[in-house]
Amino acid sequence: MKKIIIATTLLVVLAAVASGAYWLGTHQGAGQRASSPTPSSAERKVLYWYDPMVPQQHFDKAGKSPFMDMALVPKYAEEGSGGTDATSVKIDPRVTQNLGIRTASVTRGSLTHNLQATGVLAFNERDVSIVQARAAGFVERVFARAPGDVVAAGSPLVQLLVPEWSGAQQEFLALKKSGDATLTNAARQRMQLLGMPAQLIQQVERSGVPHPVVTVSFPMDGVIRELDVRAGMTVTSGQTLAKLNGLSTVWLDVAVPEAQAQQIRIGQSAQARLPALPGEVIAGRVTDILPEANLDTRTLKVRVELPNKNGHLRPGLTAQVQLANTSEQNRLLVPTEAIIRTGKGAMVMVAESGGHYRPVEVQIGGEAGDKTAVLSGLSEGQKVVTSGQFLIDSDASLQGIVAAAAPDTSADTGAMSAPAQVPSATPALHEAEGRIVAIGKGDVTIAHGPFKTLGMPGMTMSYPLAHAQLAQGLKVDDKVRVGVRQTDSGLVIEHLEKIGAAK
């Protein structure tokens, strides 16, 4: 019995020892694992430091921002496009889908401007005929005519008694009977010089009887615009009897806004739709762009000539006009919604492989419909973001990523051109007024107003001096005009002028 108890006790002790050893080994291993550094806790590589409010300015070391009262933020290598490239933003594909980001390809084609405008039909003032009296006489008869009547060519207007013609005809007939050919020809020429029509001279010669009464007819088809003759009138040579306007073509006077006048070219096609002729489209062309603008409506008058084959186009009717002009051939085109317009130009977000998005500055050309021409900055076949680009741009700005010009693309040939060598320009001098708060060794603390050209608000900041002589003769509380210039190490005072003494 004792042996059994001793054996049992030994087994219990051995089990306890084994459990303790296992527990101790486990916790020591965990402690060692916890104390060993992991790759995630290792020091990350810093590319540069930047101020999130001015992300385009990079600094080589940490410190206080010269723009705002805040510390500079480090830009890590892995925050770029998955490596050392810090010029693009990487977005998880699931986030891209949730944001509804859409892209479109950069294509090459023609940019067609379609301009919609309103116009009014008018008479074609180039298709006008004036009916005049060729000699002085008396109105024997006026045929039933009135302004607004549509007449055909050859229709009679008025009968005139011309006494001068009567005498010339009698002289001609007498000389013809005499048989003297020379005098007869001279008499015939005299009748022609008196304005007698050739048909009337032939009629007198055939009949052998004078015709002092002549019928004046309309020379062309058209509408009577003016009628200035009545029965019993006495008319003089050259007096206007009627004015006739042709109807084979009409003018459409279109009011085009002055901002869109550059899209109009003489000879370009036009399509007119009239409420009076539903469903009918009439094709015409631009014949004139009048030089004077309407001061009240700020529009230019563009003249479109339309054919009037069936006579349904009547002056005074209104029409809706579509003017098409393919003014830009073989251009790189992107959707207009992809353009991000900034205060200095325009940019797009280029979509790259692996969920990377890169801001690129572009030079844009004309715009028509939902397409915009791109003169430089992109290549055919690239993908640009058309929806959600502003969110990506905001993320890029917070990471200090600024738009850089892509390799130049020739808009005419599509060939890649070599990057232009741009000479380095001296940074601009930004000025503001302020008050000296403290003067140190090589720096000055100033409570200044906003640097408007820099976009920096007023604040109290300490700035290094370009050279110590700038602070000579100045003391605390002096009013000064300060000029700073942007350098790689931040803003540096290069001009310090006293404008008021300390109180």
Key descriptive features of the protein:
single chain; 503 residues; alpha+beta; 6 domains; six-stranded antiparallel barrel; 6 helices; 18% helix; elongated
CATH H level, superfamily name of the largest domain:
RNA polymerase II/Efflux pump adaptor protein, barrel-sandwich hybrid domain
CATH topology of the largest domain: OB fold (Dihydrolipoamide Acetyltransferase, E2P)
Largest sheet: 6 strands, antiparallel, barrel
Helical stretch tally: 6
The secondary-structure class comes to alpha+beta
Low-confidence stretches: 21-42, 80-84, 408-425
Gross morphology? elongated
Mean pLDDT: 79
CATH architecture of the largest domain: Beta Barrel
Cα-to-Cα separation, first versus last residue: 108 Å
> Radius of gyration over alpha carbons?
46 Å
Fold and architecture overview:
The chain starts with a helix and ends with a strand. It has six helices and 30 strands. Helices cover 18% and strands 42% of the residues. The strands form five sheets. The chain has a six-stranded antiparallel beta barrel with strand order 6-15-18-17-16-19. Strands 28-27-26-29-30 form a five-stranded antiparallel sheet, with no helix packed on it. The chain has a four-stranded antiparallel sheet with strand order 7-14-12-9, with no helix packed on it. Residues 21-42, 80-84 and 408-425 have low confidence and may be disordered. The chain folds into six domains: 1-34; 46-79, no CATH class; 104-111 and 329-405, conserved putative lor/sdh protein from methanococcus maripaludis s2 fold (Beta Barrel), CATH 2.40.420; 128-245, OB fold (Dihydrolipoamide Acetyltransferase, E2P), CATH 2.40.50; 249-327, Efflux pump adaptor protein, beta barrel domain (Elongation Factor Tu (Ef-tu), domain 3, Beta Barrel); 429-500, OB fold (Dihydrolipoamide Acetyltransferase, E2P), CATH 2.40.50.
